[in-house]
Amino acid sequence: MSAANVQRLPAEALYQRELDALISAEREAVPTGWRMSPRSVLAYIEGNTRVKGVEITPKYMGNRRLVEIAIATLVTDRALLLIGEPGTAKSWLSEHLAAAVNGDSTKVVQGTAGTTEEQIRYSWNYAMLIAKGPCPEAMVKSPVYRAMETGSIARVEEISRCASEVQDALISILSEKRLSVPELALEVPAAKGFSLIATANTRDKGVNDMSAALKRRFNIVVLPTPSDMATEMEIVSTRVSQLSNGLDLNAREPDADTVEKVVTIFRELRSGATLDGKQKLKGTSGVLSTAEAISLLANSMALAGSFGDGGVTDSDLAAALQGAVVKDEEKDYISWKEYLENVMKKRGGEWLRLYRACRELNP
Length: 363
Prior knowledge:
By secondary structure, the chain is of the alpha/beta class. Helix content is 47%, strand content 13%. The chain has 2 domains: 3-223, P-loop containing nucleotide triphosphate hydrolases (Rossmann fold); 229-361. It has helices at 11-14, 16-24, 38-46, 64-75, 90-102, 126-132, 143-150, 164-176, 212-215, 229-245, 256-271, 290-307, 314-325, 329-347, 351-361, and strands spanning 49-51, 54-56, 79-84, 108-110, 122-124, 139-141, 153-157, 178-181, 186-189, 195-201, 218-223. Strands 4-7-10-3-11 form a 5-stranded parallel β-sheet. A two-stranded antiparallel sheet has the order 1-2. It has a two-stranded antiparallel ribbon with strand order 5-6.
């Protein structure tokens, strides 16, 4: 299948020109197993520069020092754990770090309640196992196993959603840097360059809380929500632009006023108060993260492109807001309706058209 027909390319394919430019311009020492130096990885993540005529776009807009700590951790023998609220770009940063360091961000284990220990270690092709018995050809290697063999980075998403026995499978791997295969009387040592990046959602902390023993194997970096309005608007605008380039939305990107309205609504409902702090608000059951704001605007563009003239209208925005805010029918409906009447309506001006469009959906 050609790249043009792939719905979502991995970071190393999507930003190949940028990575190639940074690699060709490399002047610093490159750690074993890496494709570029830590400084070049930082330049790739931070962006806003040109290298050999190629524009390096920003991948993560946040605290530079946190990114430096994350990169420096991968140089050591410790694993990296990115923790934060939903939508704080944990997975996004994890993917781009792996893409920059190894050129392969696809060695991923997605943590869920159904994730098994075999997905962390290895499993078997049972037809071949029955026919030939335990042999290397019958083994199905996990992403972590393959990362150990090749000296590259494996990723474990939403590690706190995995059962405790699955999490415990990582302890010996991260401690000893070896994986035992007793069926083959084999010990697989990790090649130089092997590391692991895990992500954990603070909202899922109580699902399968990580043991102290496992936490000690990680260097933990907490990714905060955007600290100010301007930063969040920049993140949303940049990601909406990037997202729309890969989708056939047939719509124009929303203007700055539209982005500001969405970010304002999300920040106010998220914090339980208006931006000026003068009015308390009822919260909603959803997180209303920056990632959801990006998705909301992409949905608005899809509506505008499919059923409008390609420009995002207040009606398109209202329909997308309804789906993003009202997750719990009873609680969120009341909170949203109160916000419309007590905040949005009273602002008047440009907000009135959006208020009327929202009211049509909430009679």
